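To illustrate the input format used throughout this study, we show a single complete record. The first block contains the structure-token representation of the backbone; no residue identities are included at this stage. The design step must infer an amino acid for every position from geometry alone.
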């Protein structure tokens, strides 16, 4: 309620003291002590030193001093919203997961979109990959689909991730640039990482300049498994497709927007939801068997590859609607903890070595980010179904379990939680053989064929944007070797693209293409990979 003169007192120096009453509760300390004066600290005399005794001042400043927590090591800048997922077509034939069986049931979700490289206070429209993370609060526990707006990734093995991120983020001596690309360390690392070339093509496309968070696709990227009641598994890839179509800005627009409104994407999502224009996505899957995977000319465990929609068509199975902005940015958007290892019975992992490393990383980082092993108890992270186990204590423990028994199995407690073999989580029974070792399969060796397919799938103006993006980016690189090495990689992808970039950079001579471990194949261009084709 607005302040009016009758509930406001004026202090000795003219400062205003608003009084509790009516709809205004009492202002208290964290111990519930009503505060008489929130404008003046306790002084030895009106112009004298402040007294250490002032526990009200100390409590208030102590808490303020600790308001910030570490930002995410990647994907620090994000915007999120609540909504629901509704299954429209059952996958009951393939999986026991209730969320993929119960047509028409609305499952609550919390979805966070992010940039990757910039800090929490950076702008919304740099050229960068966007995170697309969905937490489904299912009846069988939380399922997190922690994806990006691009269906492939830079690297094939999680052991490379810290190096990738160190190359992408601001350079450690100078503390800039905040942007993901357009600097020496990013392009230096790309130039010596041939497996990144497919992702580099996507990163240089208009996909990394989304018009709106509401107009982005999302991808689970990795191959996952669905398990039926007999334990039979089917491979699955997940795709989100925006109802508003896939739309991008051009580079010039993105630059101007970054200056005019650093919160452009956050504000757009907020405004749309406040206005009742709830953004919506279709969830689609690609389903395939081991036998089909064995025939692909690439490895389905390799996160640098797409499975062309012409090879395995998309099947739309549901929709997600985001219809509620969080009440509190910190409590929800900042404290939410997504984790690729959060799955439900009937969904399991594949051997993708990038996914396998992710299964460790998120829980681990969130302990240092959120400060306590009990961060699953924060309301945004807690499952909305009952959950119970014998884990105890720890920093910030919020539960108060009763009784003597904190172990299992036991015979002393009549109401303690126990296993459920029938509908609990089972891992796929997969035969494994071969020799142990730090060896990458040769089936991961083709780094250029899909990069070529993607480039050649673009319309001519999309290709022109990619060539300009490469020229702009590489012209920011100070090290000549890095520029020429990247043009060399382009020659393996598309000779015309390499020529355009070399001309744009005014290179004296065309550099040699690096040897490819396997011959580069011409795959038919895929209309499904064009932005323009989806609008
Ligand atoms: C955060 C996606 C690979 C480690 C995130 C987020 C997304 C994401 C969307 C932000 C989640 C949020 O909004 O809170 C992906 C995708 C990957 C990938 C799609 C590849 C397909 C990796 C790998 C690692 C990793 C290989 C480590 C081995 C992290 C960490 C965070 C993060 C540590 C911060 C999590 C937090 O503080 O809550 N990732 N990521 N990611 N990712 Fe990844």
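Output of the design step:
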């Amino acid at each position: 309620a607005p302040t009016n003169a009758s509930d406001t007192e004026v202090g000795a120096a003219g400062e205003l003291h608003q009084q509790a009453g009516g709809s205004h509760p009492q202002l208290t300390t964290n111990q519930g002590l009503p505060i008489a004066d929130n404008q003046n600290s306790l002084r030895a005399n009106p112009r004298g030193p402040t007294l250490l005794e002032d526990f009200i001042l100390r409590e208030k400043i102590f808490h303020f001093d600790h308001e910030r927590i570490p930002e995410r090591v990647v994907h620090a800048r994000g915007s999120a919203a609540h909504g629901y997922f509704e299954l429209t077509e059952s996958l009951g034939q393939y999986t026991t997961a209730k969320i993929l069986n119960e047509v028409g049931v609305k499952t609550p979700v919390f979805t966070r979109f992010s940039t990757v490289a910039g800090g929490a206070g950076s702008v919304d429209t740099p050229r960068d990959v966007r995170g697309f993370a969905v937490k489904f609060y299912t009846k069988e526990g939380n399922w997190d689909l922690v994806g990006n707006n691009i269906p492939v990734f830079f690297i094939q093995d999680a052991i490379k991730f810290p190096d990738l991120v160190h190359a992408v983020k601001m350079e450690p001596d100078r503390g800039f640039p905040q942007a993901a690309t357009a600097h020496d360390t990013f392009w230096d690392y790309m130039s010596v990482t041939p497996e990144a070339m497919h992702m580099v093509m996507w990163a240089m496309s208009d996909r990394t300049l989304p018009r709106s968070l509401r107009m982005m696709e999302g991808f689970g990227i990795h191959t996952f498994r669905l398990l039926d009641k007999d334990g039979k598994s089917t491979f699955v890839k997940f795709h989100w497709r925006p109802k508003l179509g896939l739309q991008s800005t051009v580079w010039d627009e993105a630059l101007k927007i970054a200056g005019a409104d650093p919160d452009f994407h956050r504000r757009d999502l907020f405004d749309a939801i406040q206005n009742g224009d709830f953004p919506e996505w279709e969830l689609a899957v690609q389903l395939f068997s081991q036998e089909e995977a064995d025939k692909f000319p690439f490895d389905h465990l390799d996160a640098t590859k797409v499975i062309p929609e012409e090879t395995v068509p998309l099947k739309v199975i549901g929709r997600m609607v985001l219809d509620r902005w969080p009440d509190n940015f910190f409590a929800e958007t900042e404290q939410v903890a997504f984790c690729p290892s959060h799955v439900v019975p009937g969904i399991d992992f594949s051997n993708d070595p990038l996914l396998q490393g992710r299964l460790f990383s998120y829980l681990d980082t969130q302990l240092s980010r959120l400060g306590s092993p009990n961060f699953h108890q924060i309301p945004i992270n807690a499952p909305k179904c009952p959950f119970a186990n014998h884990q105890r204590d720890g920093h910030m423990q919020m539960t108060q379990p009763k009784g003597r028994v904190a172990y299992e199995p036991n015979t002393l407690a009549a109401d303690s939680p126990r296993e459920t073999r029938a509908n609990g989580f089972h891992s796929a029974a997969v035969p494994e053989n071969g020799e142990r070792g730090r060896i990458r399969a040769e089936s991961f060796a083709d780094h250029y064929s899909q990069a070529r397919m993607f480039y050649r799938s673009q319309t001519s103006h999309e290709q022109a944007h990619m060539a300009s993006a490469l020229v702009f980016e590489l012209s920011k690189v100070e090290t000549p070797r890095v520029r020429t090495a990247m043009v060399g990689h382009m020659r393996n992808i598309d000779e015309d693209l390499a020529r355009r970039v070399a001309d744009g950079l005014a290179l004296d001579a065309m550099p040699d293409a690096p040897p490819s471990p396997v011959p580069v194949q011409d795959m038919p261009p895929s209309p499904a990979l064009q932005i323009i084709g989806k609008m």
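Structural context for interpreting the output: The CA atoms of residues 266 and 344 lie 30 Å apart. The first strand starts at residue 8 and ends at 10.
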